[in-house]
């Protein structure tokens, strides 16, 4: 299916690794121009080289820490100068090294850091992107939340609260922007073997016998440590969610807004 993305302009934050990178790859394959926002220069450069090699008509990496408003504003100013308008914004960056732990293990500073990356990074990017989205002939926003918001998650209490806030923000935004024709959707991933997940698996004691490249081992750990199973008995590969995000970014998605789409191997009712 042609998603109608040829020459569309798209920003993917958190697009240098994991699911954001997989989305950027799909968008590039569809012929979109893609700007990737993240902090680490090395992963950004490597991602832009990959997108360019795929034939992406214009791929650019913009280093930005999304917890810093000035860096977000500078990145979107650069996007505006480059393209003048924006068709889609993907908010894929999320907390990776904060917000994991039980209620009593997380102090105020960690709560604040978790909400900064988990909620405020998307809020800031939407605010900075809106003038560019309104200038485009069609526009979409995709917010990457988490399936853990839909179940009890006492070992990831702050992370889950930040993601629940993002989901609520996304839902309300879809109504606020409906009059502008800007469609806003949430994706709720289950457990995916991303870079962030691999880091977690690598840090586990050797006696747990975990292969950090195994989708089955990743699922076993998620079940044991966080109590989240999935019907498919394995974690997802980021390449399996990229097309879903690309569809939500595209003009072929013309009637879905305010939705919260599970891509979770069937974990919603486990
Ligand atoms: N993996 C899972 O099982 C899972 C499950 C449910 C939901 N999610 C959510 O899905 C999204 C993608 O997760 P993932 O596991 O694929 O991610 P990942 O592999 O850990 O990659 C995270 C991306 O976000 C960027 N990032 C993180 N903090 C940032 C900041 N302050 N400013 C700018 N960029 C930042 C990272 O680049 P730099 O570090 O270089 O900045 C990287 O590009 C996240 O929102 C995550 O919370 C993940």
What are the defining features of this structure?
single chain, 270 residues, alpha/beta, Rossmann fold, seven-stranded parallel beta sheet, 8 helices, 7 strands, 14% strand, binds NADP nicotinamide-adenine-dinucleotide phosphate
Can you describe this structure?
This protein has a 7-stranded parallel sheet with strand order 3-2-1-4-5-6-7, sandwiched between helices. It is built from 8 helices and 7 strands. It is globular and about 55 Å long. The chain has helices at 18-29, 41-53, 69-83, 108-135, 157-176, 195-202, 215-226, 242-249, and strands at residues 9-13, 33-38, 59-63, 88-91, 139-144, 182-189, 260-263. With 270 residues, the protein is of the alpha/beta class. The mean pLDDT is 96. It has a single domain (9-192, 237-263), classed as Rossmann fold (3-Layer(aba) Sandwich). It is 43% helix and 14% strand. The longest helix is centred in the middle third of the chain and has 28 residues, at 108-135. Strand 4 (88-91), helix 4 and strand 5 (139-144) form a beta-alpha-beta unit. Bound molecules: NADP nicotinamide-adenine-dinucleotide phosphate (NAP).
């Amino acid at each position: 299916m042609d998603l109608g993305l040829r020459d569309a302009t798209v920003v993917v934050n958190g697009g240098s690794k994991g699911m954001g990178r997989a989305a950027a790859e799909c968008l590039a394959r569809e012929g979109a121009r893609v700007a990737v926002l993240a902090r680490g220069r090395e992963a950004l450069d490597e991602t832009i080289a990959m997108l360019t090699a795929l034939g992406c008509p214009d791929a650019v990496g913009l280093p930005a820490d999304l917890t810093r408003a000035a860096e977000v504003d500078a990145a979107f100013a650069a996007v505006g100068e480059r393209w003048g308008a924006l068709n889609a914004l993907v908010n894929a960056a999320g907390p990776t090294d904060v917000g994991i732990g039980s209620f009593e293990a997380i102090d105020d500073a960690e709560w604040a850091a978790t909400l900064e990356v988990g909620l405020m990074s998307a809020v800031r990017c939407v605010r900075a992107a809106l003038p560019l989205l309104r200038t485009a002939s069609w526009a979409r926003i995709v917010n990457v939340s988490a399936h853990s918001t839909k179940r009890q998650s006492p070992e990831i209490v702050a992370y889950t609260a930040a993601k629940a806030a993002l989901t609520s923000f996304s839902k309300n935004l879809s109504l606020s922007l409906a009059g502008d024709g800007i469609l806003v959707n949430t994706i709720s991933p289950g457990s995916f073997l991303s870079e962030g997940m691999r880091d977690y698996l690598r840090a586990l004691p050797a006696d747990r016998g975990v292969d950090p490249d195994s989708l089955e081992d990743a699922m076993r750990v998620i079940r044991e440590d966080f109590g989240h199973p999935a019907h498919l008995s394995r974690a997802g590969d980021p390449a399996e969610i990229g097309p879903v995000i690309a569809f939500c970014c595209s003009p072929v998605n013309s009637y879905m807004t305010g939705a919260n789409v599970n891509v979770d191997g069937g974990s919603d009712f486990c």
